[in-house]
Each structure stands twice: as C-alpha cells, then as structure tokens.
TrEMBL record:
Belongs to the SWEET sugar transporter family. Its main location: membrane. It comes from Nicotiana sylvestris (Wood tobacco). Gene3D superfamilies: 1.20.1280.290. Pfam families: MtN3_slv. One of its GO terms (cellular component) is endomembrane system. This is Bidirectional sugar transporter SWEET. The chain crosses the membrane at residues 12-37, 58-76, 88-107, 119-139, 145-165, 177-199, 205-226. It is found in: Cell membrane; Endomembrane system. It comes from the Eukaryota. Mediates both low-affinity uptake and efflux of sugar across the membrane. The gene is LOC104227570.
C-alpha cells in the first residue's frame, strides 16, 4: 500500500491538491501542522506505559520547542504582521512540545534528567536573548529580518534532526526508528507551509519548509527502499542508536553484524 502512495505522480497530485486547498482554505496548514506535532503521541504512550525513555532522544523535541517559540515570536504583529495562522499553530506546538519534554524529564534516569534540564536552559536562554535583542536593537523591517533568519534557522534544524536516524536506516537496512506516518506528516506539513509562504510571499517561511519537503521526501524514499528488508537484529539496532548518540558508532562492527545475518 505504501508503495502505491510513494509514486512521483502521487507527489505532484498532492502538491496540486494542497495548492488548491490553500487558495480557498488558508487554515489547512494549521491542520497539517497539528497532525505533525501530534505524530509522536504513539511514542510517548509507549514511554508512559513502560515508564522508561528507552533509546529515544529528547533532542528533537527540544529543537522543535525552540522552533515553535521563535515561530510564535516571528508571527507577532509587532514583528511580522498578518501571520495569525502561524501564531495559532506555534502556540499549540509550544504546548505539545513542552509536554513531551516534561514527559522525558519524568521518565528519564537521573543523569538524563540533568542533561535535559541543561539543554532546556540553553533553549530558553537562546529564545530569550534573541527576543530581547530584537526588541532593543532592531525596529521595523530590520526586526522582521532578524527574527525571520532566527526562525528559519531553527526550522531547518527541526527538519534536519532526523538525519542521524536516516543514516542509521541506511546502515542497518531497517526502518525500525523511522515511522512511515511521521515521515509522511513531515512531507505533507512542510509542503503545505511552502505553498502557504508562496501565496503570502514570505521567504522566511518558504526556505526552511522547502528544505523540510526535500528531507521528508528523502525519508519516504528510504522507507520504500528498506521497508521489506530484515536488516540487523533489533537489539543491535538499539545498540547502534545508543552509540550514534554518543558519537561512538562503530561502522566496522555494524558491517560485521550485517554480514552475519546475510550468511547464517
């Protein structure tokens, strides 16, 4: 079923449909944005049920929280007028991402809690500093440019956060840690907001979401390529994820594991 969805024709039809929807219903972008923010609910249901964060990383949710904070600030009337839709979805995103981070704080081990608190302090410090500088040092269009660049950079970071998982998919030949519907949500959401920004002629929304569209498409292509392959064992994938996050991924060992599975 997924193979039928991921044909080139599907991509073009989807873009045309989204463009038509935005022409008549501009608020459809908020619907797709909400679906993207709610996509991790299955993951957090698992975390709460097992009372453990397992191998999941809090970093993507911290980056998403920063992106939502900067997007909300950028969309305020005294920075960038006529961006009410961005304000609404950003406010919802702040609430959801803050909830996800809180769940990580509750169920992470003691050492993990300290690390998350440190990263959260950095995120809030970055946002507070940028907001303060934009108010005191910039006015009018310069303030919009300054906040727009900051928002675009954070948005690209958010869409780029799955790159390490994409690398793992290629090496392990498994889509265990790259859910199909999350990748599809990224593609649809970023494509819809790219179209919204073209209609509204806002480059600060278009550039990061265009990058998100490309990254989302790459994730879907990887899913098609590796979805039917057995890959390495689940325990070895978990070990590789842990090593990747600590910067100690042993490429040779993973290759040996793949060879062993290929030649039982």
């Amino acid at each position: 079923m997924h193979l039928l969805v991921l044909t080139p024709t599907f991509f073009w039809i989807l873009i045309i449909i989204l463009f038509s929807f935005f022409s008549f219903f501009p608020g459809i972008g908020d619907v797709f944005g909400l679906l993207l923010f709610m996509a991790p609910l299955i993951t957090f249901k698992r975390i709460i049920r097992k009372k453990s964060t397992e191998q999941f990383s809090c970093m993507p949710y911290l980056i998403s929280l920063l992106q939502c904070l900067l997007a909300a600030w950028y969309s305020l009337p005294f920075v960038s007028p006529n961006n009410l839709l961005v304000t609404v979805i950003s406010a919802i995103g702040i609430g959801l991402e803050a909830t996800y981070v809180l769940i990580f704080l509750i169920f992470s081990p003691k050492k993990g809690k300290a690390k998350i608190c440190g990263y959260l302090f950095v995120v809030l410090s970055i946002f507070s500093s940028l907001a303060l500088v934009s108010m005191l040092a910039f006015h009018g269009n310069r303030r919009k440019l300054f906040c727009g660049f900051a928002f675009a950079a954070a948005c690209i970071m958010m869409y780029g956060s799955p790159l390490s998982v994409m690398r793992l998919v290629i090496k392990s030949k498994s889509v265990e840690y790259m859910p199909f519907f999350l990748s599809l949500s990224v593609f649809i959401n970023s494509t819809s907001w790219s179209i919204f920004s073209l209609l509204g002629k806002d480059p600060f929304i278009f550039v990061p979401n265009a990058a998100g569209t490309i990254l989302g498409a790459v994730q879907l292509i990887l899913y098609v390529v590796y979805r039917d392959k057995k890959g390495v064992k689940k325990d070895e994938i978990n070990e590789s994820v842990d090593q990747m996050r600590t910067g100690k991924l042993q490429d040779g060992k993973l290759v040996d594991i793949q060879n062993e599975n290929a030649n039982p």
